[in-house]
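Hi F.,

I've been meaning to write this up properly since the lab meeting, where we talked about keeping a consistent format for the predictions we share between groups. The idea is simple: the sequence comes first, exactly as it goes in, then the structure tokens exactly as they come out, then a line or two of notes. No screenshots and no reformatting. I'm using this chain as the first example so we have something concrete to point to.
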Amino acid sequence: MAKKTVATLQTASKRLSKAIKMVKSPTTGAYTFVEAIMTPEEVDTFLKKK
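Output, unedited:
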């Protein structure tokens, strides 16, 4: 199960997005959040990989 949250961040030179993905731990079963700041083109590949 993945929760998709994307916020758009704008800096002086680049346009960036912050993606947050909810990942279930295989050992404990607890959910954790993984955050990354990247270009908008890379968001889909980040959310698809496990």
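Notes:
The mean pLDDT is 82.
The first strand starts at residue 5 and ends at 10.

If this format works for you, I'll send the rest the same way.

G.
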